[in-house]
Amino acid sequence: MLTKQKIKELLAQNLVELSPNEIPHFDKFKNISIATQRIVDAINNHEKIVVVGDYDVDGVSASAIMYKFFAKFYPIEVVIPNRFEDGYGISPGLLDKIQADLVITVDNGISSYDAATYCQKRGIDLIITDHHTPKYPLPDAYAIINPKQKDDNFPYKEICGAQIAWYLCGAINKALQLQIDLREFLDYLVLAIIADVMPLNHLNRVLVKMGLARLSKSTKPFAMVLREFFNKQYFKSEDIAFAIAPRLNSAGRMADAMVAFRFLISDDMAQARMYFEQLNNTNSQRKAIQEEITQQCIQAKKHDHFIVVSGDFHEGIVGIVASKLVHHYKLPAIVFTKKDGTLKGSGRSLGDVDLYDLISQCDEYLEKFGGHKLACGLSIKEEDLSQFSNKINDLASRLPREYFYLDEFVLGELPLSECDMELIEILESFEPFGEGNPRPKFSANVNIENVHHLKDNHYKLIVSQDGVYKDGIIFNYTGEFYDRCNIIFSVNKNEYNSTVNVQLMITDIQRI
Fold this sequence. Notes:
The protein is of the alpha/beta class. The protein has three domains: 19-276, inorganic pyrophosphatase (n-terminal core); 301-403, Diaminopimelate Epimerase, Chain A, domain 1, CATH 3.10.310.30; 410-511, CATH 2.40.50.460. It has 16 helices and 16 strands. The chain has helices at 4-13, 32-44, 57-70, 92-95, 113-122, 161-175, 186-195, 202-217, 221-230, 237-254, 258-265, 269-300, 318-329, 355-360, 385-397, 421-428; strands at 49-52, 77-79, 102-106, 125-129, 143-145, 307-311, 333-339, 342-348, 366-371, 375-381, 410-413, 441-455, 458-465, 468-474, 484-496, 499-511. The strands form three sheets. It has a five-stranded parallel sheet with strand order 2-1-3-4-5, with helices on both faces. A five-stranded mixed sheet has the order 6-7-8-10-9, sandwiched between helices. It has a five-stranded mixed barrel with strand order 12-13-14-16-15. Helix 2 packs across helix 6 and helix 3 (57-70) runs parallel beside helix 6. The protein is globular, with a radius of gyration of 24 Å.
């Protein structure tokens, strides 16, 4: 049986936190001085600078950081590819739409060999800033900033694209002696770190804590609209992961990520509200299509070690559907959609299953591929789908079964008598929770005293144990309720009508 003190000890074991003055210096990055000097020269020579971003939250946030930073002293153009017209990242087709002397990528470019060659033909210098795993040889760019490349001395490799863009701004700030306070962009940075599921330890943890504090007091219209819409003064990491990030991502998934970018850089409240309304509407459409595709994919499931599904699906939804399949089957998954005679896929993984490594071993079938351990994008020829599926399933079948787990982080059995405000305070001291520092869950044998249907598949419960009664909530539940059962839950503070009490957020109910 757990106690509050034991919970405190367990949570502290693997948590390493930097202080703000321990944040690594930008000069740890390989090539950052080369890139910075080229940017300084471009500014001094009045050259045209274009930043090319990506259509997810990380890429959009990175683009917003670069735009707002440069807006203080030098005009630049920001281009974010349209998923449906331009594909992912910088490409020759996208470059045909751009007039520039210097192009800087953020959150993309490490696999853009054709674009690097095309830039050379057009006399454009290309600086790539990216965090995705590189292949060698690297693209022939003017400079590449990526902590995962060989001989890079930046101590933390699992950082997102927006963090690298932020560091580059820091280097430019120093080189030009601008004295811009880089902390003012932390409200963008926190969105990217959490949305891109970076491990919340070390550097990421301190930046997220600082970013959440900045978001709560930011006077940028986007932040004020978020606080207004969600009726919150202070956001937690889960608010970004489950409420804010999906709305920002919906623009790139369903239409055009420039809507999310313009929301983030909005200069007035009316403009920000207008863009946020568009994001809300797009997100509602996304959820409806996503549910339909997910059900089709569940029905089409054939493999036992690695889920590979193909269909005439909405291209912008396949990644999130892959995530749903991972949680449904507790297996890695790739969902393909057909486009221009080629299958374009998005994959997600779990536990210790290295998706990047598995797909790399299928390189004879790959047309394009990029990503990291837990997520990837790829394309293959339609006629190769069966052989690709068979090979990746065979590779996955050789992995140890203990690799295939969803990190529920159930600490142990917790008596309801320990679920009080003191426990809430202990848990809050370990926030922010997220990847690498998940919000702990507990188990308990309880009686269900009352079930109240809220709406859809959401229920409010009253549970008891040895004379102690607690309120509980369970969402999206389609199972049965039992008088006596074991529940898996996290502990939450519920504030309603000026009263505060402890509420159990139940995720599973098992009959005893």
